[in-house]
Specification:
The structure holds two protein chains of two kinds. In chain A, 44% of the residues lie in helices and 21% in strands. By secondary structure, chain A is α+β, with helices and mostly antiparallel strands. In chain B, 46% of the residues are buried. Chain B has a three-stranded parallel sheet with strand order 1-2-3, with helices on both faces. The termini of chain B are close together. Chain B has a single domain (2-101), classed as Transcription Regulator spoIIAA. The chains are: A alpha+beta, B alpha/beta. The A-B interface holds A 180, 185-187, 190-191, 194, 199-203, 205-206, 208-213, 216-217, 219-221, 223-225 and B 15-16, 19, 23, 26-27, 46-49, 51-53, 55-57, 59-60, 80-81, 84-87, 89, 103-104.
């Protein structure tokens, strides 16, 4: 049974695997991007380290071997190929499989198979064949020898070469003796380096000339500097820009800060081997003794200064990692989403209780009213903060579709690019989760039916690569999500034909263009000529509409022949607690989601109940809620119409009275009532009564034709 | 013993352009006395050549059987320059402490005399 730590690891690992997938997909588009190469390694390295720490040895071992295989990519010796990306993605899926089904007996075989295939691709990429890497290979050997490329003056394939990634650099700065002739003071350069970040400087003063030697007027000190900065190698080198021809300068990346790294850095022997100061054999032999390695090596003639700076390097990196981890731990914490759900439930209870308190003390005045008002204010703030904790950028959902688009377009022999926009737009995490399946349906449809084959596109004068765009933006209290493709657009004749065939409309029906397009959302409707594994079974768009409506949203469709199709979803920000407008009809109370409400107007019933009311120069369709819900009480002489934007048009809901705003904790209706039309949930009022929350979209749907023509 | 002590106060800039002047001053003191105390309290600026001078003077003194020690307060900017230059691993504001903290400063770096 997994304990809490292992569960935390799994959550973290899923996130890392998503990051890995994104980085790989982007790397496929930009194979020369060293940032992405580094991001791939960071994710794998973290998964490997954490898996090992929490006892997922198979995952750790497998990830280690994938990492080792790909080391040549990081060192710039192997280019990124499509096959390599394919296999690394497959490896990523395999790791996910190991997380989900750790006891699956096929894991070892699949691991070996993937490693063999990966090995083959790497060997071919390097233009050589080599013995397959055994899964039992000695890990420590790889660690000691795995950084030979770091001996280059500047690493070529790491994110740290650009700014933004926190990394530690080892700079060896040996000024020429006459560097001071032009007035250069090397100490000022070192001061400048300190401004870049955490800096450890070791001066080698052994070369300082004799007191009475004329060379004392020359520079005879050199430095080893360890600087940790997020400003990249460019900034480090810029410090020495004006003295480049007056010094020997090497800048090596020695550590990229990885939050998963434990405190332990390279051992002393490894540092010296990496620097080329001693051979690996010498270190092995030296560590076999009882004395401290540094002493032994110095005793064997290794430069004492080199040993000292190696120790300084070790200490610098250890200290910096510790500092970063402390900062990270202080700035954010990981909380299981279940706990957040519980918190929201509790806040919901508090909001309900507060409503009851407010109602109980209303009219009492005095101190108790003041306390109640303050309590109401605090509960409101608590509610907002709690809800904001659950808000996630929609990019967390968008990014998961890259892989879908990539794999699907390949499967179908199409070239499709995914474009995303507005990924920073935030939605409640539950909403995002429930939006996933509808989006998958729509994207699959767009690629399968929307985007044409490359040759068809070219013949139509379009670029052979199609585009699917996911765009999100705030529209009032809702988020609008558009899924657009630049494909062929919907074939209206075919839709009509199929609709008649299926009896959705009659053969001679005169319906508007929008109503015709709306037929696409009818259950079981599909115009696809053939059922593919991708789509065409007609179980798509009606499910999409149902799912979106279940989360209180609406979905509509726009399509231009030859230019493409857009599915437009309007989604509420949250599903847990909303601001509502409390209204009354007879003895019943209802809640209208306040974000949809535009205004409230008086409604005087004419002699004929014609279902419209004049408002602001237009005729506004109205829905008599008394009639909709079969409420028998007498009508007041003057009723109220709550004017609501429903997503498909504006409509007035006729009620007896508007009571006021109400913080509405949404409760599910339960199985018995969940299919009741026109009601999306319920809430508990301050006096303990239950009020139903109106599903304004569903209620307005009956007026759809009038609304669209209004 | 006090008659054998000479305090040399380095003043102003201890940099490449003033190196000769300060070297002469220290050399003269070491000629005269067996124990020289070098005060940095009035140093306004020090560059690499100034630091080299301190090291060279100490090693010279050790070599000719004299004692040379740092004394007095160390101005903030000098202490910082020495720290940022990697000669000490922390900012040290006291001359005696600085002497022991300076890396490879001299044979008797951590073995102060009884001056």
């Amino acid at each position: 049974m997994l304990d809490g730590f292992q569960e935390s690891f799994r959550e973290e690992a899923y996130e890392l695997l998503n990051n890995l997938e994104q980085a790989l997909l982007e790397l496929e588009d930009r194979p020369d991007d060293v940032d992405l190469v580094s991001a791939v390694f960071r994710s794998m390295h973290t998964i490997k380290g954490s898996a090992s720490m929490f006892g997922f040895d198979e995952i750790s071992e497998f990830t280690h071997h994938v990492e080792t295989m790909l080391d040549d990519v990081r060192n710039g010796r192997l280019g990124v190929s499509r096959q390599l990306i394919d296999l690394t993605l497959e490896s990523r899926d395999h790791i996910r499989g190991m997380l989900e089904e750790p006891d699956d007996p096929s894991i070892p075989k699949r691991s070996r198979d993937l490693m063999d295939r990966l090995h083959h691709v790497v060997a071919v990429g390097r233009g050589e064949e080599r013995e397959p890497l055994s899964l039992d290979a000695d890990v420590s050997t790889e660690v000691i020898g795995g950084h030979e490329a770091l001996g280059d003056p500047l690493p070529t394939a790491t994110a740290a070469t650009d700014s933004g990634v926190r990394a530690t650099w080892h700079i060896r700065f040996v000024p020429h003796p006459d560097i001071g002739v032009n007035g250069t003071n090397p100490l000022l350069l070192l001061s400048e380096l300190h401004e870049l970040g955490d800096c450890t400087v070791v001066a080698d003063t052994r070369g300082i000339p004799a007191f009475d030697a004329p060379e004392l007027h020359q520079a005879h000190v050199s430095w080893d500097i360890f600087v940790t900065t997020s400003q990249g190698s460019g900034a480090v080198r810029d410090v020495f820009m004006f003295v480049e021809d007056q010094c020997e300068l090497t800048v090596r990346l020695i550590d990229e800060i990885d939050f998963s790294d434990e405190g332990e850095y390279k051992r002393l022997g490894q540092i010296l081997v990496d620097r080329g100061v001693v051979d690996e054999d010498v270190v092995r032999e030296a560590v076999s003794g009882q004395k401290r390695l540094g002493e032994v090596l110095v005793g064997r003639g290794v430069d004492e200064y080199e040993v000292e700076t190696a120790l300084q390097e070790q200490e610098h990196v250890r200290r910096t990692r510790q500092k970063v981890q402390t900062e990270a731990a202080a700035s954010s914490i990981r909380v299981q989403s279940d706990k957040l759900d519980e918190l929201v439930d509790l806040v919901g209870e508090l909001v309900t209780l507060q409503a009851r308190l407010t109602q109980t003390v209303s009219g009492m005045g005095g101190e108790v009213s003041t306390i109640s008002e303050n309590f109401e204010r605090l509960v409101g703030e608590l509610r907002d903060h709690t809800m904001s904790i659950r808000m996630l950028p929609i990019s967390t959902s968008f990014s998961r579709f890259r892989r879908l688009v990539r794999d699907l377009s390949r499967e179908l022999g199409k070239d499709v690019e995914l474009v995303t926009e507005g990924g920073e737009t935030e939605l409640d995490k539950t909403v995002i989760e429930r939006l996933h399946d509808p989006l998958v349906h729509v994207i699959r449809n767009s690629i399968d039916h929307g985007i044409e084959m490359p040759e068809v596109r070219r013949a139509a004068g379009k670029p052979s690569a199609g585009t699917v765009a996911l765009r999100a933006r705030h529209v009032g209290a809702n988020v609008e999500v558009r899924i657009e493709d630049d494909g062929a657009g919907l074939n209206r004749d075919r839709i009509r034909e199929k609709a008649v065939e299926r009896g959705v409309i009659s053969a001679d029906a005169q319906i508007s263009d929008s109503d015709l397009l709306d037929v696409v959302f009818a259950p079981g409707f599909s115009t696809a000529g053939a059922v593919t594994t991708v789509s065409g079974r007609g179980v798509g768009m009606d499910v999409v509409r149902k799912e979106v409506e279940n989360i209180g949203g609406t979905v509509s469709l726009e399509s231009t022949p030859g230019e493409g199709t857009a599915i437009v979803m309007s989604i509420p920000l949250t599903l847990a607690i909303i601001d509502g407008l409390l209204v009354r009809i007879g003895g019943e109370r209802f809640v209208v989601p306040l974000s949809n409400v535009e205004e409230c107007i008086e409604y005087r019933r004419g002699r004929e109940d014609d279902g419209v009311v004049a408002n602001r120069g237009t005729l506004l369709p109205v829905i008599d809620l008394r009639r909709e819900f079969g409420i028998a009480a007498d009508r007041p002489e003057i009723e109220q119409a709550v004017v609501v934007e429903t997503g498909i048009g504006t409509v007035g809901f006729v009620v007896d009275a508007v009571i006021g705003d109400h913080q509405t904790v949404i409760k599910n209706l339960g199985q018995v009532y969940q299919h009741v039309e026109g009601v999306s949930g319920a809430t508990i009022l301050g006096d303990g009564d239950v009020a139903l929350i109106l599903d304004v979209q569903r209620l307005a749907a009956g007026k759809g034709h009038e609304l669209r023509n209004a | 013993m006090s008659t054998k002590v000479k305090v040399v106060s380095l003043t102003g800039e201890v940099v490449l352009s003033t190196l000769h002047e300060h070297r002469t001053q220290i050399a003269a003191a070491l000629e005269e006395r067996s124990l020289v105390l070098l005060s940095l309290g009035l140093v306004e600026e020090i560059d690499l050549y100034g630091v080299q001078l301190l090291y060279a003077a100490r090693r010279h003194a050790d070599g000719v059987g004299r004692e040379l020690h740092l004394t007095g307060d160390v101005p903030e900017h000098v202490a910082r320059r020495l720290y940022e230059g990697g000669f000490v691993s922390a900012v040290v504001r006291d001359g005696r402490e600085l002497e022991t903290a300076l890396h490879e400063f001299g044979d008797a770096g951590s073995d102060d005399s009884d001056a």
